[in-house]
Design a protein that fits this description.
50% of the residues lie in helices and 0% in strands. The protein is mainly α. The termini are far apart.
Length: 166
């Protein structure tokens, strides 16, 4: 199978319509868009499979270059199964929303609108972090150091004279 312009145009139209339908607010249109995208992807995988050849059955007389590549066909079968599962799931969601709300369109939630209006600055999250983030406060070692709030613990060293003890 050779890639021709008609197949490329059909794939482009399917992708364009599928993306347009996915952006709609109706769940039924989203389902149709997903189905169009799945079919366009199947055509894309089929066209990348290359030229048509013999069946991929081993025969000593046939050269390996004459065989057809079975991988695109396996990928298409996998894609068909996945798209069927997604379609069934979306049909379940559509049925449930119709049974509960009697409407197919997704509405904006009040909470979503409130979150969209909130400013991006959060006092708690965006505050300046102090250098010391330990939950244990550092206490000064001596009373003079307590008078200085920036002081930290200092080891008490005893100075000795050369050649002996104090």
């Amino acid at each position: 199978m050779s890639i021709n312009l008609t197949l490329l145009i059909v794939m482009g139209v399917l992708y364009a319509c599928g993306i347009y339908l996915i952006l709609e607010r109706s769940l039924t249109r989203v389902l149709l868009g997903l189905m169009l995208l799945a079919n366009a992807t199947n055509l894309l995988i089929l066209s990348t499979g290359g030229y048509a050849g013999l069946a991929p059955l081993f025969n000593k007389e046939t050269a390996s270059s004459e065989y057809n590549d079975p991988l695109p066909q396996a990928l298409i079968l996998t894609s068909i199964v996945i798209s069927f599962a997604v379609t069934a799931f979306m049909l379940g969601i559509i049925y449930r929303t119709w049974a509960l709300a009697r409407q197919d369109e997704i509405q904006d939630d009040i909470e979503d609108r409130r979150v969209a209006r909130t400013p991006s600055f959060d006092k708690e999250d965006d505050a300046i972090v102090p250098l010391e983030t330990s939950e244990f406060a550092i206490t000064p070692a001596s009373p003079e150091d307590r008078a200085q709030p920036d002081a930290t613990e200092k080891p008490n060293t005893v100075r000795t004279k050369e050649g002996g003890s104090q």
